[in-house]
Amino acid sequence: MASSAEIVRFYREHLPGAKIEGDFLLAPCPFCAPRNGDKRGTIAVDISPESFFMGYFRCSLRCTPGGFPIYFGNIMGIEPKRIPGLDPDREPYVRDLTYPTKNLNAEIKKFISYMDDPQYAYFDNFGVSQKVVDEMKIGYNGRYLVYPYFLEDGNCYAARCVLPGKEQDSFWHGDESFFEGEFRTYNVREIERCEGGALFLVEGEDNLLTIKELGYPCIAVPSASDLEVLTGERLAFVKHIFVVTCNAPEARLSARAFGAKLGFKVRLLKWPSHLKRGYCLRHLSEEKGAGFGDAVASMLKRAKSFSPFSSPEKEERGFIELLQRQRGKALVGLPTGFQKMDLALGGIRGINIMGGPPKAGKSCFFMQLSTEMARKKIPVIYYDFENGRQKIYTRTLCRLSRLSERQIREEDLHEEASRRLQQAHAEFRHMLFYFRVVTDRKLSPDIMRRQIDFLQNETRRDDTLVVLDSLHKLPFKDLSERRTGIDAWLRQMEAIRDEQNVSFLVISELARGPEGSYSSKPDLGSFKESGDIEYSADNAMILLPDWDILDPISTEQRKTTLWMVASRENSPGKIAEYALEYPFWGFKEL
Predict the structure, then answer these.
(1) For the whole prediction, is pTM greater than 0.70?
(2) How would residue 159 be classed by pLDDT, with cut points 50, 70 and 90?
């Protein structure tokens, strides 16, 4: 990158009689060919070190298009190694194209000859002079203004014809193969002239003319949706691109997509929110008149380089808001209703994966945790591939009413049991607004995201609990690729956790030991196909029964121990013991 001192020295060396006035270097234009004693124009070079257009030259008589030092050196025939900022080994952009022999050059000259006072008056209404209109070779066909799209070879093969004041009434004229794609760039030769410098990229030819009137280099596309035709390779040697679209949400989205594609060299100029839809540079020029240049300069100062990151201000604001929401809370995460578990985990947050042998009560444990949270108006989505919707609802009603499934089905309950059942029904009914069960075996991460968005919007909460029962029964494209499928789902969970403020409760199967039994000593390696579990889980837990799961009618209290085997923030070890309250399908912390 050439320094400002090098650029000033370069121009002074090749512009005899140059002098500095303010932020400009002025000299007689070396490109003017005066006739009949006319004076040469004055070439002005922007030499302000703070300017994005530092090094840009232009002639006061517009005898030749303006450009930056590399273009100046090329048309002056200066040796490449003496041109500041030029890499002689660069690979210039070249279209893979054979130009046709037939062009519109003669027709364009004819259309230019039809230009008269009414047409020039149209441009004058928004501050564009006849000099700029003539420089851009704009013509008139008797009804439509004709904007020629000259290509790099200096010829025109297509032109856009627009009814003055009604841009929606337009059509293309010329060779149809030049109507679409990469050819929908107006004033495309400006790109080469701006190598090593900056230019404007605007929506609509008339908006380009307002920028050219100010003396800035500019290219245009017919509409914001055409921004996609400009590739990074095409604009590789331009350092700064100022994008100005019309004031419309669709145009802003197109501009942002373009910025995401080209990166930091793109600077988006934004319109104030109070302006009407469709407001553009032409309207600003009509409104500001002589103050249009100052208005554009002000927009330039506010323009920031396109960033894929959130602004520091937004990051700080979001963090402070999070701290404010957490202030006064005993738990950082979501409360489980179990005191010892909340103390050990600080509440449920992040990805919590729990394993256990078959029939240890994993599903029942998570049913209790999730429904208790839903009763506290925390949105819950329960993805079930194990038990079925009715079993989840029935066991929840049993636990809330303290009645067995057989008692719930009885027709004649005694008064106290009937009262408890009615009260449980009322609680269950209100809970269902926050508790949604999904059994769709075609579940995908995108579907999950949309369902989370819907429930957060429906409940007006920005936090959500997602239960997955179980990890190994999630839908995979190919059952033979279950291991990689589980890892892919875990990656998606990490993204959803961070982007949508979601906490996960995930049930995982355990791997059998060498003798075909499950280990009584909990450790991280116990998880079945545990490839990424040890890395993705914020908390990895194992639920181990201390009773004989093959003795369902045991009269002894059924104790189950919950172990923390790995955690990002908490110490591993025993969390708590729980007693199964059968036949009410609940657990009691001991």
Answers:
(1) no
(2) very high
Q: How far is the CA of 368 from the CAs of 212, 286, 336, 401, in angstroms?
A: 69, 67, 9, 13
Question: Residue 269 and residue 296: Cα distance in Å, rounded?
Answer: 9
Q: Would you state the structure tokens that stand for residue 196, as one six-digit string? A: 């090593």
How many whole angstroms separate alpha carbon 573 and alpha carbon 565?
6
Give the distance from CA 94 to its chain's centroid.
31
Query: What are the Cα distances from residue 173, in Å, to 36, 138, 250, 456?
Result: 39, 14, 27, 52
Rounded distance between C-alpha atoms, residue 178 and residue 10, angstroms: 39
Q: Which CATH number fits domain 4-82: 3.40.50.2300, 3.40.1440.60, 3.20.20.30, 3.90.580.10?
A: 3.90.580.10
Q: How many Cα neighbours within 13 Å face the side chain of 278?
A: 3
Specify the domain boundaries for CATH 3.40.50.300 within the chain: 339-589
Residues 6+ apart with CB under 8 A from 293: 214
Q: What is the C-alpha separation between 25 and 12, in angstroms, rounded?
A: 8
Determine the topology of domain 105-305 in CATH. Dna Topoisomerase Vi A Subunit; Chain: A, domain 2 (3.40.1360)
| Tally of CB atoms within 10 A around 219 | 22
Find the mean pLDDT for residues 400-413.
Answer: 88
- For residue range 467-502, list pLDDT tens digits in order: 999 888 888 765 456 677 888 888 899 999 989 999
Render pLDDT for 104-119 as a digit per residue (tens, 0 to 9). Answer: 999 999 999 999 999 9
